[in-house]
Amino acid sequence: MLLAFSMRVNISMAIVDMTDSKNATYFDWSYSIQSMILSSFFWGYVFLQIPGGELARRFGGKVLITISVSVNSLISLFMPILAQIGGWQMVIVCRTLQGLTQAFVYPSMHHLVSQWIPIEEKGTLTTIIYAGAQLGIALQLMAAGFLAEAWGWQAIFYTNGALGIIWTIIYLFIGAGRPEDSKYISKEESLYIRTSLGRVEEPKRVKTPWSKILLCLPLWAAVIGHCGQNWGFFTLMTEMPTYMAKVLGMNLTQNGVLSSLPYLAMYALSFPMGIMTDIIVRKKWLSVSNTRKLSNTIGLWGPAVALIGLSYIPEGNLTLAVVMLTVSVGVNAGTYTGYMLVLNDLAPNFSANLMGISNCFANIISIIAPLICGVIIQDESDPTEWRKVFFLASAVYFFTNLFFILFTTSEKQPWNESEENDIETKPEVKVK
């Protein structure tokens, strides 16, 4: 997750140096071309979300996550050369291909979680896994400036690519799609995991019950929660550097370091959130469903309040503004044990499919939200226009989580292991 998200955001920092005329190798790209390059990743990313979920269920999470990281790494390694040969058009092709293969990341990871993590440890271990995304963003934002300054913007891509290739080689040897296939754990540990997940026997091959999935209201409540999270998260991720530069008056070095703080906060807060939910479930203080709702409420209503507070910070109060931005993103950590786990709880056998559906819609929102910001903000240095953006994000956070609270559940759905979905059925034998 850390490597995937590092390669997802590396262009955001690299493009600043790639278009700097002071460098020996630079590109004279207009702002509109830079915008196309930055958005091209999501053109491919959205396209394969739902197919990615089905592929993960059929072929396992290990295969797809290996393809995703290895392809992204190879593209990163060759990006500097390809950019010089093919210009911005080739960069867009590369970014679209990276998006296409990263469409497998969440569905395959969700499938691996459904196969590997016992129910009693799901909050903590799932958090450790998914928090890697925020750590990847934070480390990339911090490291990119230093790498570019020391060895040029090319070093950003070479570093990401080399680390990804090393990871791929290691994972090919020690990774496994499920406990039954692993050579590195004991039979006792494998049995413990499978018993906790109710999967002691060899799982049946079942068809994907698409009609039942699409008519599942708790699923759509989780999807709505996911969309609300992505609206606020990607509004801040894409607009925060501009806000810090134009309204708070930060230079590029400050911007890179301070922009990483919210993601470091989200990474740090994810662990106590994960541990807290496991304790609540073990102690039976709340049902699993209500525990997920509590986590998601912290993850969405917390930022809603913080963004309203950010809107009214006195002009020039840099410290308080950074604190509120950090809180706004940091407490998003609650969503890791909120809608994320509901997508797993509802149907473990089809968790990759559910994540594919949810991530498809949520990332359409990721594309739309920054565009809406561009319509609202005409003067980037005007705090009142930013206030409108923050209030809109706050409202989206509030109402999407309200829908989540009212209509979702963590109860396993009956179609998760429905016998009528079996692919292989024995012929009926008539006895005369």
UniProtKB/TrEMBL annotation:
SUPFAM superfamilies: MFS general substrate transporter. Keywords: Membrane, Symport, Transmembrane, Transmembrane helix, Transport. GO terms for cellular component: membrane. It is found in: Membrane. It is a multi-pass membrane protein. PANTHER family: FI21844P1-RELATED (PTHR11662:SF280), SOLUTE CARRIER FAMILY 17 (PTHR11662). The keyword Iron-sulfur does not apply. Residues 1-412 form the Major facilitator superfamily (MFS) profile domain. It comes from the Eukaryota. One of its GO terms (molecular function) is symporter activity. This is Major facilitator superfamily (MFS) profile domain-containing protein. CDD domains: MFS_SLC17. The chain crosses the membrane at residues 29-48, 60-82, 127-147, 153-174, 213-234, 260-281, 293-313, 319-342, 354-377, 389-407. One of its GO terms (biological process) is monoatomic anion transport.
